[in-house]
Amino acid sequence: MFQRFGIRSVIAAPLQVKGKMIGVLGATEKSEYAFTPVHVDFLKKLSVSVSLAIENARLFKNVQQELTERKRAENKLIQLKKDLEAEIRDMNVLQMLSTRYIEGNDFSFLLQEIIEAAIAITGADKGNLQLLDPSTGKLKIAAHKNFDIHFLKFFEEVEAGEAASCGMAMERLERVIVEDVTHSPIFKGSDALDVLLDEGVLAVQSTPLLARSGRLLGIISTHFRQVHSPADRELRVIDILARQAADIIERSQAEEALRKAHDELEIRVQERTAELEEANQALQAEIKERKRTEATLAENEERLKLAQKAANAGTWDWNMLTGELKWSEEYYLIHGLTTDHEPYYKNWFKTVHPDDHDMVSKAVAQAIEQKMDIDIEFRTIRPDGNLCWLNAKGKTFYDDVNRPVRMVGITIDITEKKKLQAQLLQAQRMESIGTLTGGLAHNINNMLTPMTLSLQMLKNKFTDEQSQRLLNILEKNTQYSADLIKQVMSFTRGIEGERKIIQVTELISEIEKIAKQTFPKSIEVRAGVPGDLWNISGDATQLHQVLMNMCMNARDAMPDGGILNISAENLLVDENYARVNIGAKAGSYVVITVSDTGTGIPPKILDRIFEPFFTTKEFGKGTGLCLSVSLAIVKSHGGFIDVHSETGKGTTFRIHLPAVATGTQETKDLQFELSSGKGELILVVDDEPSVRDITSLILETKGYKVITADDGAEAITLYLQYRNEIKAVIMDMMMPVMEGPQSIRALNKINPEIRIIAASGLTEKDKLAKVPDNHVKAFLSKPYTAEVLLKTIYEVLSAK
């Protein structure tokens, strides 16, 4: 390279910074030249100076670049700070608006707050908020700021698509921004442009206010005195404001509509109340008139009427085209169904007793075909297996082409009525059988007398062994026939024994002693009598026979052993109790109970057990007269018997005998003082509607409040809802869905301090064996009277 440029002599020194070579410093000569040490030393020193100069220049450049970047970052931070401050300011505005709304400020005041917030967010000079009038479909100014009257009058109403940013936003349902009104095609050649310029407006933006459904509620617009293009941040915040404003407007409009609807409903309720009061007065007048015309009905007809009134009645509506049924709440209760049961005709028909299917089907078809009202009585089977008698009455409706489309009616639970009718029929049948058997017994006795006398003569005449054996057989059977006729006579006429004051305690003690001595050891005999038991008036021998008959039947019902329980108690029978028990009268009674844990009596024969000669025992092991004679004896003493039995669980007989006053005992014709409540809430749980109704009526009459449940599951639901108000629970021990013991345990888990009164149709308290002692505060034996019920509740509530 040196030769190409003609260089003959060269001197060079390296350029170094911190030991690192950054270049070379040299000198050349085209002729031969001898460089001296002085030259070399000078070049070395010069290379050091040049290296430092180059390094300083590079450092200076780097500093300049760093300062430039730092300045740029500082400017960016300043802008970010401004943006953040603006963001905070806008959020404060939105928060303040929410606070004002929550405080419940006036709607017009809130609209004014919204437009002022929009002006503050966008930095505008003016602004207005328009609401859509549904009746005209036009926008109307509802709030504004900084406009003169001419502007407000010109834009008082705006239609969709009109030459204005709000009109275009209304048509498009999206924001319209006009950065310069003088160059915008929206305002070109329009009167609106002149109005804007007169107002000093050069730019405008209009944002629609949309409901959550997308429906237009109004427009919010902000106006600027200078040409202006809103920043993205401003538009983002104005969108948030628009959403907030739309929610406020929509909710306020909904509240106003609700208020108007409430006012209209209030007027309708008042009108309807007046109509109902008028109708009620007319109904009361009609009821009084009917009562006057029905005053001559017989006592038994009156009882049947009361039983029907006590039964529940439910309404139904059958859509015959779809098969769908609409039931009232009472109808579900009558059938023992829950409200989740699908009420279709085919489902309802399955509840009808199979033996009544044809009768019901034919009755319905006949009513539809002949266009007549339906009125039928039939049986239904509840989910718990209980049989229920119903009376259904209804009317069919037809369409224009005479097609049946609907049947509407009412169903009444007449089970109690049927039971009373059965009792009356049984009493009439027993009376007829008594008359017949009484006549037969008289004639047979007339025939047995000469036979008995002749046998004595024949025994004296024929003394051989064979003749004596045959005559003994005849004598034994003749005597058996005579004894049988005596029992028949006891049934038909009663036995007029000598009436004396009897201490029931001694009578039961004698029976207990005999039973323990003579009955199998596998039968446990129990007896329990209170110390304050009243006395009765009667024939001790006859009553002894009644109790022995009951005990022997109990013994025969427990071939494998069991428990025979004999007890007694005082009972004051009130009118309600007497109304549903044929032969009962209001007054004081001693109730002797004989119960067993044997095989029980099948329901189909329970109503026949008091018939003479009816027996389920093998031939030769029973005459079928024990219970009929016992009933006759009890009736002759002015008493009555009721029986409760469960197949496989046992039977309970309750013998009611009138009590008498002695020197230390007074029963003043039921002049007892019934304890009254003070508004305490009582939960009554029983699957029998008649029991719930009469119990609730007695408690409410005496100052208590009552809620009812028809099974344990519903009882638990009600208790969870009213646990702080409920003071006591009356719990039936045998119910569908959830039985009493299970329900009691569940309630005690909820509240160990709960006061529960158990109730059972069987008197033995062994029914409570599955329930811990501290879970039940008292026990009610069905049927109970008003005095027993109120006294028990008073004692339970008063106990600490």
UniProtKB/TrEMBL annotation:
CDD domains (alphabetical): HisKA, PAS, REC
Record keyword Lyase present: no
Keyword annotations: ATP-binding, Coiled coil, Kinase, Nucleotide-binding, Phosphoprotein, Transferase, Two-component regulatory system
Residue ranges of every copy of the Histidine kinase domain listed in the record: 439-661
Residue(s) carrying 4-aspartylphosphate: D732
PROSITE patterns (alphabetical): HIS_KIN (PS50109), PAC (PS50113), RESPONSE_REGULATORY (PS50110)
Domain of life: Archaea
Molecular function terms from GO: ATP binding; phosphorelay sensor kinase activity
Chain ranges of the Response regulatory domain: 681-797
PAC domain: residues covered: 374-426
One protein family per Pfam: GAF_2
SMART domains for the chain: GAF, HATPase_c, HisKA, PAC, REC
NCBIfam families according to UniProt: sensory_box
Protein name, per record: PAS domain S-box
Organism for this UniProt entry: Candidatus Methanoperedens nitratireducens
